[in-house]
Specification:
Strand content: 15-25%
CATH architecture: 3-Layer(aba) Sandwich
Order of helices and strands: EHHEHEHEHHEEH
Strand order of the largest sheet: 3-4-2-1-5-6
CATH topology: Undecaprenyl pyrophosphate synthetase
Radius of gyration: 17 Å
Helix content: 40-55%
Number of helices: 7
Amino acid sequence: MHIAIVPDGNRRWADAKGKKSWEGHAEGVKRAFEIIQYAFKSGIKQLTFYAFSLYNFDRTEKEKTELFELMMKNHKLLLPLAKQQKIRIVFAGRRDDFPDNMIAIMNKLEKDTANYTNKSLIFLAGYDGRDELIRAAQKLVDAGEPVDEHSFRAALDLPADLPDPHLIIRTSGEHRLSGFLTWYAGYSELYFSEKMWPEFTLSEFQGALAEYKNRKRRFGK
C-alpha cells in the first residue's frame, strides 16, 4: 500500500502557539518520524512526503536556511532507521537547486539504501507536479523516444516500480493537491484533515487509514 502525505500547517501551528517558524518545522519533522516508523512497522510498503515544494524556494533566505539545517540534522536519524527496516530512500524533484552539502546527503541516502526494494520512502524535494511533467516530456523529446504511457512513466521522477498512491492525506484544512503527484494521483483516494501537521497524531493517521479501508474503489466501473 502506498500512502502519500502533504504535511501542511507547520508555520501556522507555530504562529498560533507564539513560536518561531523553525519550531513549527522542527515539530513537523518529529511528527513525520513517528508516522514513518509506525507506517512501515504496520505493513505499509510505500510512503511519500511532500518535503519541499519547488515554490518553497521563494521563501526568505532565513527560513530556507533553517529548513535546510533541519533537514541535514535529521538525516542522521533517518539512515539508521532505513537500514534497520530495509527501506529505500528516494528524493524526487529538482535537487540541483539545493545547497551542495544537502545534495551530497540526498545522494548518500539514496546510494546507501538503493538495494532495498521491498519498502520505499519518497521525499519530494524541489518538486512540482507540472514541472515534473514538463521535464519528463523534454527528456523524451531530447532522446527521440516515442511517447506512450509506459515511456512517459519511466521518464518521471518517482521510481518506475512504485505504485500510484492508494491514499493521499493533506493536513491543515486545505482541500487541494497543490501540484502534488500530478501524474500519479488520478485515482488516489483523498483524505483532508483540519489538523495542522504538528497536531496530526498517530491516532489521526490511523483514523485516515480506517476511513480508506471503508471506501469502495470502483475505478469507473
